[in-house]
TrEMBL record:
Keyword Signal carried by entry: no
Name of the featured protein: Integral membrane protein
Keyword tags: Membrane, Transmembrane, Transmembrane helix
Source organism of this protein record: Hymenobacter armeniacus
The keyword Transmembrane is annotated on this UniProt entry: yes
Superkingdom: Bacteria
Length: 317
């Protein structure tokens, strides 16, 4: 028990240090945004008989993604035989507030499932390290678009055809291609959540603004190509060409924000993924909310400014 308490105190101190690194000014903006997004998501889901079950599914999935990317799993495995029990307690503590909210709405089944599923995430293995590229097929994307190369090899090469096939099968329902675009965006968020080594930035030999512009142009071009079939299906249905154009523009804008968030907090992977999650949370949960235009303006302006500022510090120009 004492070792478990020491571990939890250590994790608390580490979380506090990460918050301090973000800075008080950014926390003054991000803190309320996090509270608004999380509370709105839970309050929207908890009162509904069907939507309540999304919470015990979505939260463990988020925990599983973060768990498999943890850099300290190998260290814990070699230094603490009971580390999975520690992780199970940690994840249970993280899920406890959401479970209590579900219980307040008398969603006892969903709350119990969440408290059972969240600790079970600790049993998952770590993500496999990159294997040798000797036998890999040549990618259709340029090597400098490494996020796309690695993302497709990591699951996108089979997920994208399935999304297009599903959107075509249910082409009469505008929700089908819209959901497919949302899933594809989430996969891209995972691709752009890992910072590349600093040598990949410095070897380009370009000023920060030109380098960032090329990254945006290349990635947005590939994003538009992969989204085009889904947008065509959307436009051929009840949504029409105008609806597809509006959705496509907003979708590409979100991809651009994911890229800006990556370089705004480069090379801190935790801050990058947290900011990207906030961007997607604002996009999916807050349309129609009175604060939505303000938060969107702050997100766009802040990420443009911070990404250029961070890249100038890294590239020196």
């Amino acid at each position: 028990m004492s070792a478990l308490l020491a571990y939890l105190r250590l994790r608390g101190r580490l979380s506090w240090r990460l918050l301090v690194e973000v800075g008080w000014l950014r926390m003054a903006v991000l803190g309320p945004m996090v509270l608004i997004l999380v509370s709105r998501a839970l309050v929207l889901a908890a009162p509904h008989r069907q939507a309540q079950w999304l919470v015990p599914v979505a939260l463990p999935l988020l925990l599983a993604s973060a768990h498999r990317q943890r850099a300290d799993l190998r260290f814990l495995a070699t230094s603490a035989p009971d580390y999975r029990r520690w992780l199970a307690v940690e994840y249970g503590v993280v899920a406890l507030p959401a479970a209590l909210l579900l219980a307040c709405f008398q969603d006892w089944g969903a709350a119990a499932l969440l408290l059972a599923a969240a600790p079970a995430v600790a049993a998952l293995p770590a993500a496999r390290e990159d294997r040798s590229t000797r036998h890999r097929a040549r990618s259709l994307f340029r090597s400098e678009a490494f996020e796309w190369v690695g993302g497709l090899r990591g699951g996108g090469q089979w997920l994208w055809p399935l999304l297009v096939a599903g959107a075509c099968w249910w082409h009469a329902y505008p929700l089908a291609p819209a959901v497919a675009l949302a899933v594809w965006l989430l996969l891209l968020a995972g691709c752009f959540g890992t910072p590349e080594p600093i040598t990949m930035l410095t070897l380009a030999g370009q000023p920060s603004r030109a380098w960032l512009g090329r990254r945006l142009l290349l990635s947005l071009g590939y994003a538009a190509l992969t989204a085009a079939p889904l947008l065509w299906v959307l436009g051929s249905g009840p949504a029409g060409a105008g609806g597809a154009l509006a959705v496509g523009t907003a979708w590409l804008g979100l991809v651009g924000l994911l890229i800006l968030a990556k370089y705004a907090f480069y090379p801190n992977a935790t801050h990058i993924r947290t900011t990207q999650a906030l961007v997607l949370g604002v996009a999916f949960l807050l349309p129609g909310h009175p604060l939505y235009p303000v938060l969107l303006l702050v997100a766009v302006g802040g990420l443009i400014w911070q990404s250029q500022r961070r890249l100038r510090a890294v590239l020196g120009s």
